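User: Some background: our group keeps a shared notebook of sequences we're curious about, and every so often someone picks one and asks for a predicted structure to add to the entry. Today it's my turn. The entry only has the sequence so far, pasted here. Could you supply the structure so I can complete it?
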Amino acid sequence: MAMTTQEIQGSLRDYLQIIFHRRWFFAMPFVIVFFTATIGSFFLPKYYKSSILILVEEEKPVNPLATKEMTYIPPTGQPPTLAEQLKTLTERILSYPHLLVLAKTLDLDKGITDQVAYEKLLMGMRKRSDVRMRSPDVFQISYEDKNPVASRDVVRTLIKIFIDENKSKKTGQAQTAIKFAEEQAQLYKKKLEESEKALFEFRAQYPMQLPGATLDYNVSMLTNYQTSLTTIQMNIKEAQNKIDLTKKQLSGREPVIITSETIDLNPAVSRLNSRLQELQSRRDDLMAKQPDSPDIASSQVEIEDVREQLRLETEKLVGSDTAQTAPLFYKRLEQKLKDAQKEVDELKAREKNLQNLVKEYEKRIETLPEQERKLALLTRDTEVNQNIYKMLVLKVEENKLAAAEVEEKGTKYTILDDARIPLKPSKPEILLIGIVALVLGILSGFGCVFLTEFADHSFRGVEDAKAFLKFEILGGIAAIVDRNEIMARKAKQRVIAGLIVVLYVVFFAVAATYSSIKQEEVKNKVIEIANKEKAAEVKQYGK
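Assistant: Of course. Here's the predicted structure to add to the notebook entry:
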């Protein structure tokens, strides 16, 4: 049965009377918890947070001179994109080797000789680091440290590691192709020199031996087929490398990264991107035609709202498990493996056909007289080696051009907000601690009142006694207490309470003053360091 308004008011009145009756049991825990927590917050270690904001701009390099066969294609099919880097960014930057290099670079391990302490240092650095995605093309790296200068230096070093690693990775792929082509070119250059020397010696020995029309045709066809066969074999080797990489990704031995295609597979991201472009276009039109229109402000608010939704969707996609959130990506990865395997099978079939053709024309040449056959083979070897050498030299130059384009027109990293030396600590948050201490103090006060009331079995009046005792109660006699004694007890309680409050207030003031002085010292030191760095920069640029 529902309680009436009078019953509810009566219950509230009873609770308030209990709290008022046990007010000391409420006040003392509240004061102790609240002031102890707030005073203690001033003595907690101060951590300073420094952040850097990076804009990543993708610009796909284009080589107008390269052909399909001679242009270097990375194993992933395209240069790593922002989404690919963000998937494994945290693990790569905060991996053990990178943290080790970071500690060595900044001398953070100075004085540490124990391996356990070293591990604790590296794990603490990892725990205090944070990588967040602010938008599809903007991310932030943050770090907290007791030393504000160290927090700034760590963040800058982390982003340097990230940028250098990405640049070296992209240029390294092209350099690998250049190295492979150069090694093959040197090999065929040596073969060409040997075949030319053998042909020269043969012609010097038989100066009157000239190839006929049939011999010339057979040598020309054999040369073409042999050149094509060698090219096919090199393409098979490159395709097999792609297959090996894809198999490692599917088996988990190679990091699986999310490409921009995966983001496009998310309909929410595509819809929000379209909506954002539409709103930005409408806002630009309003600013051009009606600069004073009130709709501009509302459009800007809506744009920011869509941007936030887009950021959350993208962060959810990038930060979640790829195999569960992007099954289509894995299907495409499997399809990529099948396509590469199919390409290898087709190349091997062409290789087999070319081998048969090469054998056929070699047999034709073998039926010729000894001198003509030897001349044909020497001519074939020389022309094949010459063609392949020219092709490899061209491939080396085109791969160098591709590497230069990757370095010049590849991914660009722009620092939107550079890491600065923080002046104020990010932790502890004294206001938040104070609010939590207030809530905990109130709860502890209520808990103490409840326990005291629950443990008190005394009768407060005749009605309480009647409800508990079986005997008839004729009346009750109140406790006889002297008025002066009551006044003295209350005065004593007020003095004790006042002393406790004054003591806590004094401690609070001392703690706040101490914290403020320490903070001012750190601030002055930071400003001094910043001024020295600025003066050094001015002096450097002045020179």
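Suggested note for the entry: The longest strand covers residues 48-57. Residues 61-82, 252-262, 317-326 have pLDDT under 50 and may be disordered.
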